[in-house]
Amino acid sequence: MTARAPIALAVADFRERVRRPAYAVTLLAAVGLACLAVPDAASHWVIMDVGGYRGVYTSAWIGTVTALAGALWLTMAGFYVVRDAIARDERTRVGHLLAASPLRTPTYLVGKCLSNVLVLASMAGVLAVTAPLMQFARGESGAFDPVALLLPFALITLPPLVLTAAAAVLFETVPLLRGGVGNVVWFVVSMVLVLGGQSRNAPLGGIGVRQAAESMRAALVEQGIDVSGREFSLGLTSVAEPLRTFRWDGFTPDGAFMGSRLVLLAVGIAVALLPTLWFGRFDPARGLGRGPVAVPSKPGRGRAKAQDEILGDLPRAGRGEPGMGGPVGLPVPPATATVTMTAPGRGRAFWRLLAGELRVLAGGVSPWWWLVVAAVTVAGFATPEPATLLPLAWIWPVLVWSRLGTLRVEHGVEGLLGAYPTMWRGLLAEWTAGVVLTAVTGIAPAVRMAATADWAGVGSWAGGALLVPALALALGVATRTHRVFQVVYLGLWYLAVNGVAALDYMGVVRSEGVPAGPSPLAVGGLALLLVGAALAVRTARHAVR
């Protein structure tokens, strides 16, 4: 293999990715992020706040702010965009061909990392292209300086994205981190990296915030503005009054900062190569370090068990046994045979469906998981402020919620369950099971708020209990994957916990002791709309079969 092999592999993988509709969605999201980073002068939502000030919208300010926003959000969300590269090779059986080829494991890992970098860099490129358009659209400065606008992207945005791309490769080669656990772990890790990267003592210069902030403070002092006690903030925040402006012409990176960027790139390469120690590149002869486990193409013992749980209320003659004919293991009865299915009453059928959905949703959950739920519940009854425990209670089940709407696809029974005569009843039972799980995990704060006559808090709690499983179900049905809900919900939860009242579905943001978020009726109505959307998608998908 030549030195060009990783580049060829990366380019081929990148070309395959850009053909997907999801790639166009990610680019549109990058355009939205650029617009968000340069808000209207009268906006009360900002990305960067320098103690109540912002820079005039020059090329230097817009380039730096957009680059910092890209480093902040693409580091967090970009991981979820690119983390499926190795697993896709296993699912499509391309990995089996690679295992028989002379391609070396380091070459493969570097190629996948470079492919991830290309995807993330293309998103950063969209930010860079949109930034000058935003400068001219805002109309505060007509002088265009391409160097001042583009240099921050090279120094601030790209190095963290290389580290993110390498982390995606690393997570895909570690068994514990391949699935939903890895999604949650990266959310926590990225928050630590992003928040810690804004501090003065951040290793390797962090994400470049400190250098930019010091230069901005110096510009404020030169213009006679008192900076004592003024805080610098980066991230989507709400301000009471539109920010005042000052002139800032950018910052000049010193040698130490340039060196830290190079070291950060080297760390990213080292992280990408680290799995060489255990990753077997899909070689079945190497038990330790095999690639991600593929979903079996034929029903096996594990899938049969899952079918038994999901189809527990159907007669066995109507669902067949693993290994028999049909796409999900259905036997083909003789032409003269008849299958009799006794339909229970409507009310009884729903409750049996609900019981089955609860068994499926909780199936496979470790006793340790329930132990944590019990501990959080006890703490919720003991703490003086029960509402403060609700965010913890409603982040722990994220991996279980994400199974809503996806299990029938995962275990190959979607076609069979789609033949159920009243599809809405099964979907309603699935959502209700999610509501029950949500209520159980957050029962302590609800009881405590009811005991203190905090009915506004109880109403917000009820709205959240309806919304979370509805969101999981709608995204699961629409995307057929766990990952989308996990990413969306983690972001929604983070914004609610950090005081964004407009997105507070739990009632934890309070004003004068009353929840400041949306009305519980509005939240509950949104939950019903999401359930209706899930039903519409599932019905439409069944109609075109």
From TrEMBL:
The chain crosses the membrane at residues 21-39, 59-82, 113-137, 149-171, 176-196, 262-280, 360-382, 388-406, 427-447, 459-478, 487-508, 520-537. It comes from the Bacteria. PROSITE patterns: PROKAR_LIPOPROTEIN (PS51257). Keywords: Membrane, Transmembrane, Transmembrane helix. This is ABC transporter permease. It comes from Microtetraspora glauca.
